[in-house]
Design a protein that fits this description.
about 100 residues
């Protein structure tokens, strides 16, 4: 069982049974799309998969009425503390082997 886009072949589909099932399926979809981002072989495919991931996250946020202001406030908070990319465009890695 998996969540599919509206507008696809609906001959073997049904509505989700309850909120819990929908939440689980949306979370599964986010994970599926995240894995596809990781496995994207080209920059074009990466952009496509990031778009799919964004759509899955947007569905999760929208359905569960998570206010975008709250999400944006978290993003601002994290950016003030530091992000995943430094000013030179390098990723920042924690390595317990570095002394």
């Amino acid at each position: 069982m998996k969540l599919i886009r509206t507008g696809m072949d609906v001959s073997k589909t049904r509505p989700t049974r309850n909120e819990y099932e929908l939440k689980c399926l949306l979370l599964d979809k986010v994970l599926e799309e995240a894995y596809e981002v990781v496995e994207a072989p080209t920059e074009d495919k990466l952009a496509e998969e990031v778009g799919d991931l964004y759509e899955a996250l947007d569905a999760l946020v929208t359905h569960f009425d998570i206010e975008m202001e709250v999400v944006q406030a978290r993003v601002i908070k994290y950016s003030q503390r530091g992000g995943f990319i430094d000013a030179e465009g390098n990723g920042v890695v924690y390595d317990s082997e570095v002394y």
